[in-house]
């Protein structure tokens, strides 16, 4: 069972399906791991290409191995629009410690609607071991 800290670096999005007719979209991302949730800043006027370069930390303490990223469009007069989502399997980052910048497909109603670029790092919690064989009193 992995224990430690998961760092998610939200880099950018591209090819997003534009949900606004009169102006460019203002996309943001809601990142969810188990019951922990973070929200990126809003990329005002970014349209179908957004850049964040933001880092988020999650505490990993059980065998849940999926990160959910929901892409939204911030609206001022109506509810925010759901643009799509991607789910990232974390087994590889738990095993290898890091996944470099990777593009993940954003899907809405089983259709491709853009991609998110994300980098992942897992810092495993190591148990503190005391070496009782050494003279620690000198």
From TrEMBL:
A Pfam entry, by short name: C2
Record-level Gene Ontology MF annotations: metal ion binding
Keyword Calcium: yes
Domain of life: Eukaryota
Domain C2: 1-103
InterPro entries: C2_dom, C2_domain_sf
Keywords, alphabetical: Calcium, Metal-binding
PANTHER family documented for this protein: C2 DOMAIN-CONTAINING, ELICITOR-RESPONSIVE-LIKE PROTEIN
Name of the protein this chain belongs to: C2 domain-containing protein At1g63220-like
Name of encoding gene: LOC113852309
């Amino acid at each position: 069972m992995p224990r430690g800290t998961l760092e998610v670096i939200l880099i950018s999005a591209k090819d997003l399906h534009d949900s606004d007719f009169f102006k460019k979209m203002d996309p943001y991302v809601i990142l969810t791991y188990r019951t922990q949730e973070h929200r990126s800043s809003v990329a005002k006027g970014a349209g179908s290409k957004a850049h964040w370069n933001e880092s988020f930390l999650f505490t990993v303490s059980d065998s849940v191995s999926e990160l959910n990223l929901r892409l939204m469009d911030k609206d001022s007069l109506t509810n925010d629009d759901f643009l799509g989502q991607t789910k990232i399997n974390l087994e590889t980052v738990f095993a290898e410690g890091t996944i470099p910048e990777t593009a993940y497909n954003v899907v809405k109603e089983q259709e491709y609607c853009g991609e998110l670029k994300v980098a992942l790092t897992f810092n495993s919690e190591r148990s503190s071991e005391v070496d009782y064989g050494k003279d620690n009193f000198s």
